[in-house]
Amino acid sequence: MNASFAAQINSILAAFILLTAFGLLVQRRVFGLLHIFAWQGLLLSISTAIVGYSAGLHHLYISAVLTLSLKVIVLPWILYVLIHRLKIHKEVEDMVNIPTTMLIGIALVIFSYHLTAPIRELSTLVTRSTLAVALATVMLGLLMMITRKKAVTQIIGFLAMENGLFFAATSATYGMPLVIEMGVALDILIAAFIFGIFFFQIRTTFDTLDLKAMEKLKEEE
Amino acid sequence: MILLVLLGINLIASIALAFVGDRKYAPELNIFGSAATFAASIRLALKVYNHGPMLAANGFFFVDAFNVYLAVLTAFVSMTTAIFSRKYMRHERSHGKVGHKGMRFYHAMFQLFIFAMLLALLTNNIGVLWISMELATLSTVLLVSLYRTPSAVEAAWKYFILCGVGIAQALFGTVLLYFASEKIFGEGSRGLLWTNLSAVADKLEPTVLSLAFIFFIVGYGTKVGLVPLHNWLPDAHSEGPTPISAVLSGLLLNVALYALVRCKVLVDGATHSHKAGYIMMIFGLLSILVASFSLLRQKDIKRMFAYSSIEHMGIATFAFGLGGPVATFGGLLHMLVHSLTKSSIFFTVGHASQMHSTQEMSSIGGLIKGNPSVGWGFMLGVTAIAGLPPFGVFTSEFLILTAAIKDAPMFMPFFLLGLVIAFAALFRKVLPMVFGKPPSIQKPIKAAHLPVFIHMSLILVLGLYLPTFLSQWFHAAVVLLVR
């Protein structure tokens, strides 16, 4: 597999990752979100493995396996169990203004391309063109966390942001040193346990996982 | 070796406390762990003081004048907080605000939090710095929701989400930094070591580093509590247990600012301009102004002092942004005195709200009559934090002000306006609470006097005269930060 072919495959994967990011933005069903999130992790893992193969960097295989196990198996499984325990699997989130959200999302993608333009010119890596997509994934995750009002959805947005960051690391630098990636993975795992506990705390104190109920702490006028 | 001891104590204490749980001697064990950490940090400080900066474990750890003083401060405040929390948490426990499991969790996480902050301070690796900052957030998130009241859970969720999002931006900054350094060092951890990076800072790509700095200031700035990224801070500080408010305000904000300043040094070296400094000055000034106006409107006592923390972190950020030897010296001193004063205020505030079973300022009154040492400790703490002489905060603010008059006169009016409003707001709110007749709801409590006494005397000493070793220390740090 030569470099340009690998770069092309990687670009296609990047396009799909961006597609999943938009999918997350507008998906209303909890399980739908979970599926899209798992697909995003899978695409990320394949992309990492391809970059590792074409650049001959074996430590990227380890990152790919790490992503596969964490983002495709462990985290979706934890969320799946939580959703079942909390009996919210049938919930449909009502959202207003899907078209507006999509338009803002598109604007964010363009902004990401603009922001990373100077870096693309400096880089010599085959993966450089995907950095913009990585930043866009981070931004779309952020947008998702702002527009959504359910605890589970916000967490999935948070994890999607983390996916974007991971993708940025592979596309800008062929991955961070392995120690760092391990550490980040550990932090995400701890975070997963914490939000698991949180869902139950929110549920027992507010009787719902809808964050609209949590608007007590505000500056009084 | 001493580094491993220093970091190991907290980790072992954390695990031990998780097993000890709610036994009678758990608070004492907590104090013992923190005191041992403090002793180890003094040992490390002496070593650095006598032999200069040191690298350890293949460059994984780096200790210089800048971070060692913060490490000693962290260990010290964590020790006094542990002493304070013994009586405070016993009161909470006996009043049923926190249960059996909660106490176990509280002690274990307290030690883990100190561990995370010390690791963040002492590591040389920018990536590990990020990981430990995130760990520090995660270990305190569930402590904020310890009381399980609706507002505590809401505050903790906000803290978790906003800091998680914020710090994710800092990771992107770290990726960009690694991207720039990889061109010089190639693959591997070497390219993330701060000492290596600062040695070649002028060869790093300026456009990439400018972009990275934006992400750093958004990321670590969220944790520092800079306006407009500060929304989580007043909630998390007011809803958590008071010892946690004390360490969040006194220590975590400092560590986050430390991370930001370390990154700024690299960016300054690469861009050869003062751009990063200006960004920090504007964020700092905005924090001072917004926080001081918000002080006026507060009703909750802990929330008010959370805003005061935002103001003071704004002052320190402004000082580091201003750069130059005097301002940097002032900034370093300000981090020290703010941390000591604010944690001491939180100790007295904790007792004051326990006496009245509320955090509403309108229900608190007559502290000096009710419990003279709590009342006077509180009054003196507020006098110090408002920047009146002869306390240490006055010295540092005066230094920063002097530097600002010389280097950035156009920012001066705003800076002064913020200080004056904060001063007026604090005294307007605090005087009725301290003087006057105690309300009928007031109940006597067993208060921990020692931590407040130690802190206040230290701040007084720092205001009257700066010990030679400390000023030499700061000079060494200034040389590192100002080029």
Order of secondary-structure elements of chain B: HHEEHHHHHHHHHHHHHHHHH
Oligomer: heterodimer
What's the gyration radius of chain A in Å?
Answer: 18 Å
Instruction: Give the helix tally of chain B.
Output: 19
Chain pair forming the biggest interface: A-B, 47 and 48 residues
Tally the beta strands of chain A.
0
Low-confidence stretches of chain B: none
Structure summary, number of beta strands of chain B: 2
Indicate the mean pLDDT of chain B.
91
Q: Note the total helix count of chain A.
A: 7
Low-confidence segments of chain A, given as residue ranges, are none
What's the overall average pLDDT of chain A, rounded? 86
Which outline of chain A best applies? globular
- What is the radius of gyration of chain B computed over CA atoms, rounded to a whole number of angstroms? 21 Å
What percent of residues of chain A adopt helix (DSSP H or I)?
over 70%
Topology readout:
The complex is a heterodimer of chains A (221) and B (483).
Chain A: H1 3-26, H2 30-55, H3 59-85, H4 98-122, H5 131-147, H6 151-173, H7 178-206
Chain B: H1 2-20, H2 26-51, E1 54-56, E2 61-63, H3 65-94, H4 100-122, H5 126-144, H6 150-185, H7 194-199, H8 206-224, H9 232-239, H10 242-271, H11 275-295, H12 301-322, H13 325-356, H14 367-370, H15 372-385, H16 392-407, H17 412-434, H18 450-464, H19 468-481
Antiparallel strand pairs in B: 1-2
